[in-house]
């Protein structure tokens, strides 16, 4: 590994914020180049995903998450795509130098990862960075959890984010008759309709969400893919058609609240309405290998055929990652945000 630099850079939490995190709450640290042992691989990260829900881990006030809360001094985690540069002691069945892999140790230039915890990418998608899109979540939520049917009216809250920017397109490809999204600005709303095939968009802050949704979906909503919660979930309940199926994927209304640490997302719902309309309300059930494989097959085909777009922003330089995170929290970007270290 003599061709490698002596140090690697990584983004660490410098201080837990009181309220929403800003770039100043993070620091860029230089560390000795990590050295893999047998059964591990050294990966040079090419891209990593900057996602708003990381605020919950940064806040340190949440329990029962798959990744533990962060403490000052901890490097940040996140989905990454990288190239294996060393795999000592590997056999013919494991990752080899030159392989592109996905893993969870983003926010650093180089990472040592157990070989069993990297996923070889192959050529399923035409652009490796597309693996950082969150469409697999949307696909699983819409096909398994909500069971979208031809002609359904689908409402996607947080439609301009990493999940939502693909969810509306996927819903359309699965046969939805009308697709409505919510977002935080008129400009993003216009892009949802012009670029991603949404039929209409409601805008947070442009009037009561319930009234806007009622105008956009006068016949009601069959499916909700909810990334936000709060008043948007409440509005969807009011607009629910009989037998509607709602899937809770995220809770950004609480996670990105200025007060607190982002570990709760309370909302008051009309449970009587849920009963009268026979609404199914369930949490996203996660991803299994069968669904991941099905998504990659369909996603790759849709991308190559030009039937789906992958909206994303690429930001160069790991030193700019903290600023990118602050901008994601502030809602400045459209689609998936990735950093190229």
UniProtKB/TrEMBL annotation:
Pfam (any one): ADH_N_2
InterPro entries associated with the record: ADH-like_C, ADH_N_2, ER, GroES-like_sf, NAD(P)-bd_dom_sf, Zn-ADH-like_protein
Domain Enoyl reductase (ER), residue spans: 19-339
Family annotation (PANTHER family): PROSTAGLANDIN REDUCTASE 3, SHORT-CHAIN DEHYDROGENASE/REDUCTASE
Protein name: NADP-dependent oxidoreductase
Native source species: Actinomadura luzonensis
